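Table 4 source record.
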Amino acid sequence: MIVVYGIKDQLNPIKARLSDVIHQCMQSVLGMPEDKRAHRFIPMEADDFYYPGGRTDAYTVIEINMMAGRKEETKKRLIKALFREIESNLSISPVDIEITIKEQEPHCWGFRGMTGDEVQDLKYKVKV
């Protein structure tokens, strides 16, 4: 699951395109299937969204929650692809993008009535 935070006046007009860019990166780097998109957008009022100096109102936070198992180089490739593709497709400078990958062990995930370590039919690989 991916959660994206930003100032609503900046985030709302681009969220569909941003979702497409994020998903394309997840597909190309992690091999996620087309139908495996779980994105949540949290548009915030400007006075509720504090961010570091040197950033603009386009500052966007992307939290990627996923099962543990990907290699360090794979996760770094994903982060760099996101910076590159967001800048290229949406003209948001990498200085205005913050990306965090949060990993949990498969047994900490629950979906389709089971835990992640019990599932046998994932259409993608976790150990990439």
